[in-house]
UniProtKB/TrEMBL annotation:
Lineage: Bacteria, Pseudomonadati, Bacteroidota, Cytophagia, Cytophagales
InterPro entries membership: DUF922
Protein known as: DUF922 domain-containing protein
Pfam families: DUF922 (PF06037)
Amino acid sequence: MAQTDSQKYIEWTPSYQLNWNDFAGQPGAGAIGDAGTAVAIKAKPYIEKSKIHYIVHALFDKHKSWYRDKSPSLLAHEQLHFDLAELYARKARKKIIEIALTGETDLKVYNQAVQKILNESNMIDRQYDAETLHGSITKKQQEWKERVDKELIALQSYTDQRVDLK
C-alpha cells in the first residue's frame, strides 16, 4: 500500500489489536452509540505476466473510526468488527481460489463472487451489532467472539493477502 494509505489504514494482522489511539475520526452528526469502527475489504485484481492475481486486504480506516467513550469491553466489540472483516477477506480469498480451480478466466465471474461475499459481510456486521446490542450484551458478545475466532482458525490457510490464479 502507498505511504498515504498506511497513515489512513491499519491492515489486519493476527498480532495487532486495536487501541483507542487508532480511532482518529469524529462521529458524524447522525452517529449513535459510543464508538464507530470503519472497516473495509479491498479486493483488487491485477494482471502480471498474463496471469490474474488478487490482493485482498481487511482494513481499518483510522480517520473514519471514532469513539465517545472508552472501555475495554467496547474496544473488544470494535476489534471484533475488524476481525469480521478479516474473516470475510479470507472467505473471498478462498472463493477466488475455488473459482480458479474450475479453470475460469472471466474476471467478471471472480468480481461477482467477491461482491456477493462483501455484501454478506455487510449483512453479518449489522447482525453482529443487532445481536450484541453494540457489545452491551456480554453473553452474545462472547458467543460472537468464539464463533469468529473459530472461523478464522478454520480459514487459516487463506491468510495470504495475495491470491495467484494458476
